[in-house]
Amino acid sequence: MTRSSTRSLQLLLIFRLLLIFTKLSYIASLSLTIGTCNLWNVMFNWRVRVQHIAELIKENEIDIMAFQEVRQTVLKTYPATSQLDEFKSLLPEFKWTFSRVAGEVSKPLNSYWYEWNKEGLGILSRKQIIASTVINFTSVGQTDTNPRIALHVKIRLDPSTFVNVIVVHFSYDRHQQCSNAEELMRYISTLELFNVIILGDFNAYTDFPGPMDMFTSKRQSSCFIKRYPNLSYLIGTFKDAWISFDSHDSTGFTFSNMPEPGLVNRPDRIIISKNLTVKQISVTGNGLAYKNNLYTSVLRNRALTVIQTSYDSFMGRHGYSCFHDCGPHGSCRCGVCIHGGNKLNCNIPDCNECTSWVFLLFLFFVVSFCVAVVTLFYSMVKALVVSSRFNQELVWDILGYRCCLFNKGLFLKIDIVPRKYKSKMASFFVICRLPPFVLMFLMSIYLFSLLCFFNVIFNDSINLIYSVLPEEMFPSDHLMVFTKLSL
Fold this sequence. Notes:
Strand content: 15-25%
Shape: globular
Helix content: 25-40%
Distance between the termini: 43 Å
């Protein structure tokens, strides 16, 4: 073999190796991480929870995120807003979103608020959404009167590869669950969808696997046997991502992420086409990390809510102030839920902790505190100015060290303000003409007294803020599920 032939073979081998490497890199790039989370609508401290959920999405590098129980404000006289809007501001890399309202929200009796009046589903995506559709499920029976929908989005992963993502929140009624599953199977079959990912809250029960069997099991589903024998050919065309992954360190249970009854079920699932491969799957969002890291944020949010409710009382609003029912273990007072049972509810302005007088007193204390802090700062600056004018050589000669505090000017009246401003300032801040140390001492005593009076006067409101329900120390009543898939 000639040298030129050998060189040609070497070049050909290198080219083939590069081609194989390129293909492997291309295949490796065709992966995505997708997750689902039931948002628990606007329950307990939404302003804090949204920050935590956004951090979970960032930490786990999720590309596509599906949400259930997404609240929206849809009113003619009010700008349309959605919980997804808050995620978009926290996660600007998610450039594509799609959401749709399913139905009206049942407000607690005598509620005066008008926000968050609709609820539905939503999806965030780093990848381009090129098509979106709403699937309206038929309502059957009278047990579950909530309208049920699904969202279908077609997402482009690269110029020639797409996935069909379907977000669901099935009915809790078993009969209607079968109907929801059957209608979704018909939809997928009619459109001949490929690379399908179905995820969300299936409201699946361990003692009633029928709806899930329609997607993942080769055996006849009880739903099929009873109602839909003509769809039997579709049985087992999908797989449960959690079950298909061999290595697990937990049961995959996602509900209830609460002290009671604890994790007893797996309603939140990711169902995928059999050609997709699960590289990793996990659950996240337990209450321990949330409580350890965000307890102070929860208290701050509760304090802001009590202040806002006091303002509502001042503005003449009246009624139930919480955005949700506080459940059997809590009562609603001043916009927050407190422990002690469900017999302590009160409507504003009848709650002593957030009356209009409470709001006015709070304003007085805020203004007084700010004035005192500014005055104290002024006295400190004044002391520094006086000290800078003092020749410390005398102290050095007497004591052997220098100290700016040995200055009689600090205890005497002294002017440091230009003359043209004196008359104006004197009319407003007569106290500022006192000697620096005297002024500092008086302001320190005043601030201390102000804080003591604050604790006494607002004692009931402070106790209300600290009366946190155990349920509040969880980011949601469902854990988040996410999986990394390859195509």
